[in-house]
Every structure is written in C-alpha cells, then in structure tokens.
C-alpha cells in the first residue's frame, strides 16, 4: 500500500508541532511542512502533490491548511478544490491554528450542556462571544449563527475591527451576527447582562469574566472558556468543568480542558477520516462541529 503522505501548508513562519504530532499519531506515515505559503501558490503545490502519484495513491495523499487566519485558510481550501482533477483527487482539511476543531468542540460542549441541563437548543438562544476577532471566536460565531442562535461578537479593540469582521461573516456565510464593543470591563459586563450564553475565546492568560460579572448576570445560563493559561478566562470555572454551577443564579461553566478533550478527539478523528477515506474529502469547521457533536 502507498504511504500516507500529508502536505501541510502554513501562512506562518513555522508549522504547528501540535498539528504535526496529531497527524502522525492519527496514521499519516509522512508529514511535510510548507511555510510562508501564499494564496497564489496553493494551486501549484496541490497539483504537484496530486500528479506525482498514481490515481490509486490519491486517497493516500492529503493537504492540510494551517496558519492563523480563518478566512485565508478557507480561501486556500477553495483554491485547492479548484485545482483538483479526476482521477487524481486528494483529500483536503483546513484547521488554522486549531481554530476549526476548537470552535467545533466548544459549541458542541455548550449545546450538550444546554440541552441536558437547561432543556434548550441553540436555536433562538442569545450568545455573546468575547475574543471574536480571533480565529476561535470567529469560527464559534459562524457555527452558532448557522445553528440559529442570536450571536453578538465582541471586539476588545473597539467597534471598527469587529464590525468589519461581522460584515464579512454575514456576507460569506449568509448569517446574521451583531458586532459590539467589548474594549472595557463595563462594556464586557453590559453585554453579559443581555445574553444567555457567553463564549470566551480571548487570548491566553486574559480573564474575561470575573466572579462579580457572573453574579451580576442573572440571566446567564452558560459560560464556556477555551483559555487554559492562568488567569482563566472565566473566574471560578475549573479546567475540567462540564456544566458545573459557577454562580448563585445557576449559571453553568464549561472549562478549557473539557473542551480541549473534545477538540483533540475531533482533530485526530478528521485526520483519521482522511487516512481511511474511500473517496476524496474536503473538511472544514462544519465537519469539525459535526464530529465534535458525536464525541461530546
């Protein structure tokens, strides 16, 4: 049998060792990193990988899109799809900075706790996402909005940047999200008071919600955090919490490692799907969310 080869394309200076390890542990025999890759280089790289092997080895060839820009990774994925030709088609997978699998895991964990402990679905729920200009926040917003939630995306650097991001989300995915200024602690709390679910996807080591914020938010039902570096994003939410009460009003916390366990299984599972596929795959955040739902 032909070796399972994964060509890993990143827009950054380095390929993520996390993703390399995950791919090899999932069953790829060889991983080859390509760094500082630009959008206009994708077609040539994909076709070099594709045409260098017989059609019988096409399904043993994969292309992975990394970097730190969700939109650019999706654009690269689209360019790669256009470059494929039968019968040489290879499998494609985008997960920039682990954001697609992390976001899929976070929303899947929230959905599970919301259904089991609050008897509610995401559709119609009011969700605020802190750190929404980052890749995990961006993807979480899109997934939640596609599930029918009323999503507000908060930007820590003011309203201008997050408004442009929200407009891009709405246009690209045909969804509705509302931008909001989350640049001060008062604004963070004001947004929390207006929503039922808070997703915290701020950078590592930044506390987004304090215990006093949680106590002030009487209508808050769930707060989820993907930050495992102290101080945690949600004060009082344990790393392994999965629906543990964190306020006197009954708000439930979902911690970073609880989400991380599902993220790990999701990324590994998608790599395994590529290795064992009987037809070419093209995987993005939607597939990550679908698999995370099964794993949570």
Description:
It is built from 10 helices and 12 strands. The chain has helices at residues 17-25, 42-51, 70-83, 99-118, 135-146, 159-173, 185-193, 211-216, 256-276, 285-295; strands at residues 5-9, 30-34, 61-65, 91-94, 126-130, 150-155, 177-181, 197-200, 222-225, 242-245, 252-254, 282-283. The strands form 2 sheets. The protein has a 7-stranded mixed sheet with strand order 7-6-5-8-9-11-10, sandwiched between helices. It is elongated. The two termini are 34 Å apart.
Short description:
The protein has 296 residues and is of the alpha/beta class.
Number of strands: 12
Q: Count every helix, treating DSSP H or I runs of 4 or more residues as helices.
A: 10
**Which stretches of 5+ consecutive residues score pLDDT under 50?**
none
Series of H and E elements: EHEHEHEHEHEHEHEHEEEHEH
Structural class: alpha/beta
Rg to the nearest angstrom? 20 Å
Helix content bin: 40-55%
Shape call: elongated
Spatial sequence of strands, sheet with the most strands: 7-6-5-8-9-11-10
- What distance lies between the first and last C-alpha atoms, to the nearest angstrom? 34 Å
Q: Mind summarizing the main beta sheet?
A: 7 strands, mixed
**What fraction of residues sit in β-strands?**
15-25%
Average of per-residue pLDDT values? 96
């Amino acid at each position: 049998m032909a070796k399972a080869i994964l060509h890993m394309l990143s827009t950054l200076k380095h390929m993520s060792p996390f993703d390399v390890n995950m791919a090899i542990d999932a069953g790829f025999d060889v991983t080859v990193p390509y760094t500082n890759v630009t959008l206009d280089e994708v077609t040539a790289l994909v076709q070099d990988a594709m045409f260098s092997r017989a059609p019988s080895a096409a399904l043993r060839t994969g292309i992975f899109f990394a970097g730190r820009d969700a939109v650019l990774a999706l654009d690269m994925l689209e360019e790669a799809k256009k470059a494929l030709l039968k019968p040489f088609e290879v499998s494609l997978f985008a997960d920039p900075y682990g954001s697609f699998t992390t976001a899929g895991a976070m929303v899947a964990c929230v959905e599970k706790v919301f259904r089991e402990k609050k008897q509610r679905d995401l559709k119609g729920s009011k969700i605020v996402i802190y750190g929404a200009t980052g890749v995990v926040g961006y993807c979480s917003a899109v997934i939640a909005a596609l599930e029918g939630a009323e999503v507000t995306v908060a930007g820590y650097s003011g309203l201008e940047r997050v408004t442009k991001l929200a407009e891009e989300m709405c246009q690209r995915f045909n969804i509705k999200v509302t931008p909001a200024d989350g640049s001060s602690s008062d604004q963070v709390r004001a947004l929390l008071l207006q929503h039922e679910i808070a997703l915290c996807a701020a950078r590592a080591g930044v506390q987004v919600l304090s215990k006093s914020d949680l106590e002030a938010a009487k209508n808050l039902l769930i707060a989820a955090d993907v930050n495992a570096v102290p101080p945690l994003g949600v004060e009082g939410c344990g790393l392994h919490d999965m629906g543990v009460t964190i306020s006197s009003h009954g708000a439930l916390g979902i911690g970073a490692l609880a989400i991380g366990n599902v993220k790990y299984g999701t990324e590994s599972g998608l790599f395994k799907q590529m290795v064992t596929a009987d037809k070419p795959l093209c995987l993005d955040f939607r597939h990550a969310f679908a698999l995370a739902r099964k794993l949570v």
